[in-house]
Design brief:
98 residues; alpha+beta; Alpha-Beta Plaits; 35% strand; globular; Dabb family protein; Dabb; Dimeric_a/b-barrel
Length: 98
């Protein structure tokens, strides 16, 4: 199993809308990928309530590295990335196998 964790910083547009609103929008879009992207087992978006450098996170579980690779190029995921890029200007990512 592969875990994929992304941390995002909101840009001015995202801050204007507020993290809660952006997270709610993205949560719906990412959850819609379940059952669409083969090998995607779990996905969620959350707001960081703890302060610090990053405002939001994306957490995913995949069956395999190959499933994660397919997710990265899946047309439905690429459409969501376009939306994400309108709200964020910083990103960090960690992927690991368990």
């Amino acid at each position: 199993m592969v875990k994929h964790i992304v941390l995002w910083k909101l840009n001015d547009e995202g801050k204007k809308d507020g993290a809660t609103k952006v997270v709610t929008l993205l949560q719906g879009k990412f959850k819609a990928l379940l059952g669409v992207v083969d090998g995607l087992k779990a996905i969620e978006v959350g707001e960081n309530y703890n302060g610090g450098e990053y405002d939001m996170t994306l957490y995913c579980e995949f069956e395999s590295k190959e499933a994660q690779d397919n997710y990265q190029t899946h047309p439905a995921h690429l459409e969501i990335k376009k939306v994400v890029h309108t709200f964020v200007d910083g990103r960090a990512c960690v992927d690991y196998v368990i």
